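Record format v2
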Amino acid sequence: MNAPLNHTDPLVLFMPSGKRGRFPKGTTVLDAARELGVYVESVCGGRATCGRCQVIVQEGSFAKHKIVSSNDHISAKGAKEERYERIRGLADGRRLSCSSTIEGDLVIDVPQDTVINAQVVRKAALDRVIERSPALQLCYVEVDQPDMHKPLGDLDRLKVMLEKDWGWQDLLVSQHLLPQTQSILRKGQWGVTAAIHRDLESSRPSIIALWPGLHNEAYGIACDIGSTTIAMHLVSLLSGRVVATSGTSNPQIRFGEDLMSRVSYVMMNPEGRQAMTTAVREAINGLVSKVCAEGGVSADDILDAVFVGNPIMHHLFLGIDPTELGQAPFALAVSGAVHTWGSELGLKINHGARVYVLPCIAGHVGADAAAATLSEGPHRQDRMMLLVDVGTNAEIVLGNRERVVAASSPTGPAFEGAEISSGQRAAPGAIERVRIDPETLEPRFRIIGSEKWSDEEGFAEESSALGVTGICGSAIIEVVAEMYLAGIISEDGVVDGSLATRSPRILQSGRTWSYLLHDGKQRITVTQNDVRAIQLAKSALYAGIKLLMEKLGVQRVDTIRFAGAFGSFIDPKYAMVLGLIPDCDLKEVSAVGNAAGQGALMALLNRDYRREIEDTVRRIEKIETALEPHFQQLFIDAMALPNKVDAFPELARSVTLPARKTSPDEPGTSDGAPRRRSREERAARRSRS
Amino acid sequence: MNAPLNHTDPLVLFMPSGKRGRFPKGTTVLDAARELGVYVESVCGGRATCGRCQVIVQEGSFAKHKIVSSNDHISAKGAKEERYERIRGLADGRRLSCSSTIEGDLVIDVPQDTVINAQVVRKAALDRVIERSPALQLCYVEVDQPDMHKPLGDLDRLKVMLEKDWGWQDLLVSQHLLPQTQSILRKGQWGVTAAIHRDLESSRPSIIALWPGLHNEAYGIACDIGSTTIAMHLVSLLSGRVVATSGTSNPQIRFGEDLMSRVSYVMMNPEGRQAMTTAVREAINGLVSKVCAEGGVSADDILDAVFVGNPIMHHLFLGIDPTELGQAPFALAVSGAVHTWGSELGLKINHGARVYVLPCIAGHVGADAAAATLSEGPHRQDRMMLLVDVGTNAEIVLGNRERVVAASSPTGPAFEGAEISSGQRAAPGAIERVRIDPETLEPRFRIIGSEKWSDEEGFAEESSALGVTGICGSAIIEVVAEMYLAGIISEDGVVDGSLATRSPRILQSGRTWSYLLHDGKQRITVTQNDVRAIQLAKSALYAGIKLLMEKLGVQRVDTIRFAGAFGSFIDPKYAMVLGLIPDCDLKEVSAVGNAAGQGALMALLNRDYRREIEDTVRRIEKIETALEPHFQQLFIDAMALPNKVDAFPELARSVTLPARKTSPDEPGTSDGAPRRRSREERAARRSRS
């Protein structure tokens, strides 16, 4: 590459990166890619045996900016490459970049195999390509045999070769390899593959694993540890392909359904922290087995792992007591990224495997929010993006290239159906869609497990097998919004008892009224308390968002992304009707699924993303809602249901919205209406979430 | 320090380093020391609480290069320093360098407390000062309390403070500290002491331990793992003082007396390697308990450890199978320095303690030889130094500043008394000194446990209690040399049977003759085979030395250092009489005791020595005697006993040395005389050693 370049040298364009440069004839395509910083994997070090450096060659002429057919722009296949093709096969148009040299202008496609599982990430992400630059690299070398004249140790000679062939300087070696090195070298007849791990450009590279001969497999896991669900991707670090994706429920649930009850468990039980740490690590090991079985991969080939989770999950996974997170000032033990070893965490993956845990943003805004930020990238764009992950707390990130702010808002578990009388988990039989006729106040709905609406023919048969068992979390929003649109509840959120004269579905219970959604084996009603719970949750969320908008001095956001399971199932329209989120072009509101898992995957496949999110998290301005006096006012202001019907003409139908009720018992009465909450109450409430 | 310096600024001279510089008035003595690179410990960071930065102040005037009395060259004691003096005391003339400022010319003595135990190191070393620069530093900091407005983790705020107060950037943190950090910070009410470890300037510093409040103790161990004996120093890393020194026998002896029988044990027993690794680690833990008890130190305060040992001990300690070292090409698994953790090696010291193992030079020249080289420093001087460590193999290092060569020579265990008919370990009753009257051929001797010679009055009484039980290893040299000087053996090493007519001490046994040294409860004789064994051992040693001298093209050496127990007990005169070592001014021949342990200590107290020995080991030219065709000739040439009597007139007495015998049965007959050994035989011999 040091030969003087001139304009008659062939021009090579690499796709999809678009990087290009001129190289003297005879340069290998692999060398040209490396020179330009285009990531092309290679394990065998140019011996044409691993096949990892395959590229698709289009010969090109740039003179007229179009590709013309010509056979002499790339070298013919040599003996080594032909041998590889004979034994392992090479698809049409594919070449080994280590063995083919540039002889004329070329367009080179670098295959990008990263495919994100559609189940966990929105369809739009399917075509997103994560540019790869993994922290791990496999390097095959042939080591000199021992020489009594130069009695350098076997490991030392291995290092010499890794420097000579691959340029690795100053290599550290995992302690556990010392006893194995000699037998591996001899078993491989002095040809071995070393796994080199280097987290960041500034860190010292380490040999973390070693195999006899050419070892052509290296995998990583990206894992999002949620309070309820743990999700994992298994990815080939060599091809970038997602090999398997799976999830499991977090077994810590047996210690407490929500986060704060788990913190309480730790505080009350001396062995509680250890028990919960063991539980989550065992569940992760179970998931590792599962994805490995699904992908046909040996867990011993997993060499790098990235974890994200909310602060309490993060701490418990790392074996840290989360007690401090349960009380003001909500102090994290560690907020920066954690670099450690799988073996330190009891993970049943390769003994030398490294673990990277993304940084936490704040005491209630965890590494999962950081990962979602990395995935959606508000900090990478000019437009103002709102990123919301609704769990028991809502984690809210707002910003653009210039500035990013983040906060957590204590929405409580209502959005997850936990404080709702007929609420239940998403399971067959749960109501997931609801429409209410504003004239008759009659509902129609769909349940999970059936494609039919309840007023369609055949629903009775289908539902009799499944049962109609409750309302799933995400449908709560829809029911309350439909009740509002049908005039059953007022702007203040009061169920209008006067409608009982019009419909037998309006039922009195004590001093308040309920709406009867279904009268089957189980009576499914929406009570005044249910509506209040949703109102409280949505005002907390909206107030948090509004607070961040005020901090940035913006009146509206350009785009809204819902991360997490909640966001995947709610209809953004209804979220806007109820006023969960601020005004925004509906086309710009989308659910992004497990954005945290996607961010973890990015950090796994490209270590540059690790630096990016660490820098970003440092830069994010953290807002603690509990410390903002204005938050309480915003919270109260957000309590009423907005008049959004105009914004959604298709929802308006023929209804006339009821006039705002002004009876003296509203709001603030004992019937469950919201009233101004003291700081103490909010803290207690947060403690429950 | 950035203030412009001028020649009117006070001049400060630090002793014993002799470093000097001008500093503006008001500069603290500690800052001045640091500026000049003078090592002054400080834990509390200038709070005048740890007392580690004490110096002895002599006020000075450099105008006439002599110190004049004056009280105004250093600031008066401030409130903090007075408080320290009141509570902890300050010896006369001592000041806390963090709290005293330069106000005029000063001579500052930095106390150097390193005292090497006289038992293990020659007296001459007692006045050797190891300039300190340990890899470990204790740093007290006061950490900001958690702030919800800046939700940085506790550990992250600790790092911020360690950077602000102490300049540590980019700190790593030992994984095991993550779960402890929060409680330690709270227990210390946000004042904590961190142990920062940084092996080499190029490596990233790590927080390896953390205590609430001011922690003012940090210790290290330096350990030499010998095949027979394990020796350990316990040292304060803050003062440099050797707190305790102890030794224990290597429990691996139960698996095999010598190194090669231990390798055989590993080869024959599947669990053998693990058993021997466990044995040596347990012995080391036992020694740790012992030195800690002796020094009144908690093992949890041991934060750094340096180990040396021969290649087989080195491998077994690290858990590496030594089988490859038992056969050509004697491949080391790792020759470079090993940096690891005490916890990885099962050591019962602080969980975060680091371990440094010096590099090995070659398959038979271990980290012990490297440490001895570091201690004696042939590579640091202009004169040609020969360094010999005689064990079952002799490790030989020869060289000076320009070039250093090293080899191992298969002396076998004769020098240790193992192949000698009346040989025994050094214990009460063992003969340790011998003189033979050349006229009468009568011996006189001394035994361990008695100050009297055997011909002195009262010896009978003393010896009757002890018994006269054998000849200790180091006395073998003296007996054979005296026999030679008395004419009992010829230059060829044959016991002269014709002398039987002159003395009843010349006894026939089969075809050869023996010398009766003592006729008590046990008959102690020196047989022809004993003489042959010593001849073989000494020729192997001499041939190895000669080979290295030839490599360097030198005719004589300037100084000879015997390392190890053997060297400590033999009389260099007799070594020269028998031709173990080349000609050298006797004044320049000395025993240096456990030079390996001393080298380990240096690497413990000053990390610059780690770099020094790593560089030196890389630079050393390794000579494998088995591959040198010339070695065999040198070996044969060295077999005869030289005529050294002229060189030692005091030994010559009145004897006429016997004429060189030339009977046809000498050399090479079946009476045990040496003959040319085949390469195979030598390899087999080495296998036994």
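The longest helix of chain B spans residues 528-552.
Confidence is low (pLDDT under 50) at residues 63-69, 114-127, 652-689 of chain B.
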